[in-house]
Amino acid sequence: MANDVVLRLDRASAEDLYEVLWLVGEHLAAGAPLPALPAEANARLGRVISTLGHSLGKAAPL
After folding, report:
1. What's the pLDDT score for residue 5?
2. How far apart are the first and last CA of the chain?
3. Alpha-carbon span 23 to 37, nearest angstrom
4. pTM higher than 0.85, yes or no?
5. Which of 59, 23, 25 minimizes the C-alpha distance to 42?
6. Do the Cβ atoms of 47 and 54 come closer than 8 Å?
7. CA angle 62, 27, 60 (to 5 degrees)
8. How confident is the model at residue 61 (pLDDT cuts 50, 70, 90)?
9. Average pLDDT of span 25-44
């Protein structure tokens, strides 16, 4: 499949991504604000988003 995007994540980043996606869904459904992420999780997820953006050919947001 030529258009597939595949990311390889370390366990901690995969856990963080799962948690944040779950939290977003739950909080949006409840109309509640999202809690702040711990600094380490925020940094790991930032790297995941950067890698994903690069894989998709998207420029980094300003």
Report:
1. 86
2. 32
3. 10
4. no
5. 23
6. no
7. 15
8. low
9. 89
Q: How far apart are the C-alpha atoms of 27 and 18, rounded to whole Å?
A: 14
Give the separation between CA 51 and CA 56, rounded to whole angstroms: 9
Find the angle CA(47)-CA(7)-CA(25) to the nearest 5 degrees.
Answer: 75
Alpha carbons 47 and 9: distance in angstroms, whole number? 10
53: left (phi over 0), alpha (psi -120 to 50) or beta: alpha
Its sign, for the CA torsion 50, 54, 55, 56, is positive
Sign of the torsion angle spanned by Cα atoms 20, 23, 25, 27: negative
Write out pLDDT tens, residues 3-23: 888 888 999 999 999 999 998
Helix 39-55 with 11-30: angle, nearest 10 deg: 100
